[in-house]
Amino acid sequence: MGKGLLIVVSGPSGAGKGTICKELAGKADIDLSVSMTTRKPRPGEEEGKSYYFVTEEAFLDHKEKNGFLEWANVYGNFYGTPKKLVLDKLEKGRDVVLEIDIQGAMQVKENFPKGIFVFILPPSMAELRKRITGRGSETEDAINLRFNEALREIAYIHKYDYCVVNGELDEATARIQAIVTAEHSRVTEDIYDMIAAYKKEG
Amino acid sequence: MGKGLLIVVSGPSGAGKGTICKELAGKADIDLSVSMTTRKPRPGEEEGKSYYFVTEEAFLDHKEKNGFLEWANVYGNFYGTPKKLVLDKLEKGRDVVLEIDIQGAMQVKENFPKGIFVFILPPSMAELRKRITGRGSETEDAINLRFNEALREIAYIHKYDYCVVNGELDEATARIQAIVTAEHSRVTEDIYDMIAAYKKEG
Predict the structure, then answer these.
(1) Which residues of chain A are within 8 Å of residue B183 when distances are taken between CB atoms?
(2) Distance between CA A172 and CA A122 in Å, rounded?
(3) Chain B residues whose beta carbon lies within 8 Å of the beta carbon of residue A199
């Protein structure tokens, strides 16, 4: 079927994009993108599976060399998606799913516009508030802040190709699988090689 | 999920588009578009199911009033896709599949660019020749004519959104179902109503 696809799964925090991506990578023949970070490993985290753990020097060197599809500094730790790892997989025909917040997705869109951009919506704002609250240990102010942030983020939806409402996990996952199947059937420039092969045969 | 989609399934004769459409209408919640024709009904054909059988006068009147998504004169008989019937179904949220040759598909694209245009390819040119030959009762010249016509038609593929190879009927049908699911998840202008509803709720 030719080259692999980069599926960027994004949305406000609390929409459930992480759960969907894990489900997707487990069910379908899709690889999860692994980030590089300067954060210290937590118990149970595996090098090359959870993250690639690197020094700040190594990270900044990678960044300097334009080696990231996107990167961010979160509370003093760097996180980034290594470009080469993703592109190598796509070249080999593997589909890759990348879970990322909206700012990160916009960076990926800039660096790799061929990606398939999927926005995950919570089934309702009431449900989103419940999910944000349900994480516990946060103050009312912090919850309101996250909630308003989510509202602002939803306005970015028009920058995306697809929008999937995460009501039932199975249904949302199946919908993204359908999107991947459909995108593999898109008429793109590669089609001309295919036509040439047909004509030669004919 | 909003309005229905018009899925235009097209391709060279012998690609198997008719079989796919019947399979699709049987499996998925999709209606087959019914054409209007001036041809006389054949035994077993049902009014409103196989075709809408009309007089030439009625057909030309309909055509005069711009009432077709596409129409053609084939060996002295008129055939056309009534616009209102299709649009009414879409408005009610029903998906409609329209099986049509390439010339017809290009007319539909002109009149209804929002349609989803799917090109059906045979698995190989050898298989296409076999299918054309397999219909029997045709001379070598007629077969060659159809075969070369198919080659010319394949060049229209770049006007389509999707391309599905009809190797296994089940797989090709599932692929079109995935395309329909994906297209229902597309971010379109309707999304703004959805966002407005979210914000109101928030």
Answers:
(1) 182
(2) 11
(3) 125, 151, 154
B106, B150 contact by CB (below 8 A): no
- B181 → closest Cβ in A126, A178, A195: A178
Number of Cβ within 10 Å of residue A164's Cβ equals 25
Quote the pLDDT of residue B201. 66
Are the Cβ atoms of A186 and B162 closer than 8 angstroms? yes
A191-201 helix and B140-154 helix, angle to the nearest 10 degrees: 160
What's the CA gap between B106 and B109, in Å, rounded? Answer: 5
CA distance A190 to chain B (A): 10
pLDDT of residue B132: 80
CB B178 within 8 A of CB A178: yes
Task: Please state, in angstroms and as integers, the Cα–Cα distance from residue A67 to each residue in A7, A48, A70, A111, B116, following that order.
Answer: 19, 17, 9, 11, 38
Mean pLDDT for A180-199 is: 83
Of A161, A191, A195, the CB nearest to B186: A161
Prediction pTM value: 0.90
The percent helix, strand, coil of chain B (3-state, each to 5) is 50, 20, 30
Q: What is d(CA B20, CA B9) in angstroms, rounded to the nearest whole number?
A: 9
CB contact under 8 A, B182 and A177: no
State both tokens at B152. Answer: 């010319």
Q: How many CB atoms lie within 10 A of CB B82?
A: 19
Contact state of A181 with B182 under an 8 Å Cβ cutoff? yes
Contact: A164, B186; criterion CB under 8 Å: no
Q: Residues of A with CB below 8 A from B9's CB?
A: none
Domains of chain B: 6-201 (3.40.50.300)
Give the pLDDT confidence of B101-116 residue by residue, as tens digits: 999 999 999 999 999 9
Q: What is the ipTM of this complex?
A: 0.88
